[in-house]
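User: quick one, fold this
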Amino acid sequence: MDQENRVFGNEEALPAEGAALPFGETAGSLTAAAPVRPHRKRRVDQEEIWGTALAAIPLIGFFLFGFIPLMMAFVMGFMDFSEAYGWSFDGAVLCGFDNFIFVLTDPQFWQAVLNTLIFGISTLISLVLALIIAYLLTRDVKGLAVWRIIFFVPYVCSTIALTLMWKEMFNPAWGIINQILGNTDLANGAINWTGEPTAFYCMVIIMSVWSGMGYGILLYSAALTNVDQSTVEAATIDGAGPFRIFFCVVLPTISPTTFYLLITGIIGLLQSFATTFTLGSSLTTQSLTIVYYMYNYMMAYDLGVAGAAAWVLAIFILIVTLIQFIGSKRWVKYD
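Assistant:
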């Protein structure tokens, strides 16, 4: 039955066009109006409430521990705290861009930038070693899960605890590293890991590579499982060797993972502090990083310089990240 010729809520059909109406009935009396349905209130699902609450936790954390401190640092960067008492705003006065000018013209700050970039060599070494190890672990290796746990455990351990462990191992007089090298006498040319600039740089890089490589191995292992094996087989049939397959097929496929590790690694590098601070080396110049520089001025109650340095660091991170995103269009393949 044609729905246009049905009375809403009634199974009886209207008379056909031109047909005679029943005695005493009119066309208007046979037309039924659709009843107005009451508006139903949208029922909020309990699952939706929990999902919104859980999703808001990171935003609340960022607002409390990220956004608010960043805004406070911005305000402090334009204030002179030389007359203030401790970590208080009482006595602080506006000074314009003096703190930013001081930071950008301070040789110690640029030494901290140089040290941070030197320590950043560990990020590139970690990426390369993590990729090689993860690729080897995709082969038929016995105890694969055990190996992955062994490589990943240093990443989840406390940075302070690992640094103290390595500090004892690199001790010039009784450390196991110098014992393996066969010389623990500083007078006879033993390596003074905490007292020589080049040795100190190498020590920090070794520690950083060892502790940070496990995260890259885990992500690369997951990325390598998504490599299209049919493409690899086709390249093998066409005569491509293992190295050509790795560089032309595997690397482009896992390039998004490489890009992610590079972004997070460089951001973490620019914020490095705990390792050199815990080492407590007598080389105050070589152990200084950007965050360590900020920490020193915070402990000296010069909050204006510390706040200005924090914003200079934030701008550095923003510029470096933008450059990486722009450059990624040339080598990162998402298809």
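User: anything notable?
Assistant: The chain is about 60% helix and 0% strand.
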